[in-house]
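User: Hey, quick favor. My workstation is busy. Could you predict this chain's structure for me?
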Amino acid sequence: MIYLIDKDLWRDGKETEVRTEVGDIAIRLEQSSSIFSKKIIIYDRYHVEIGALKKNGFSKHGYDIYYDNQVIGTILKKRVLLSKRLVIRSAATGAEFRIKGSMDNYTIDIYRKLRRVARAHPKLTDDMSKYGFECIDDEHRYLLLCSVIALGLG
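Assistant: No problem, here it is.
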């Protein structure tokens, strides 16, 4: 299934929607920021709170991903030899996902070991104001979708 995400999440105010390719609302996002923290509240299509994205520390990409008030994953920078790599770590399964690409042009691939499990790309949609997200890994779909949204926040 392909999800469509606005490149400018907050174009219509403090709330935005992520839709499926057929137009159904998958999740709703709402900003809730203070001076010391940045938080995105995640609602289902019926506007029932299901989770959140919370900035962890002062890292540009560091986010904790919550589902039902529990951390289910984290986006972090990991040192590998002499380079740094962005990874997503699942708190429940311990799975680690590598992020390749750049959200500057909304084109990234997410790998688990050597297998691509998700991707975000503007060519997955005909609407120039959106980019598409496609996930192959059903077990971690929510975690990976939220990670792509967090990466899009900058």
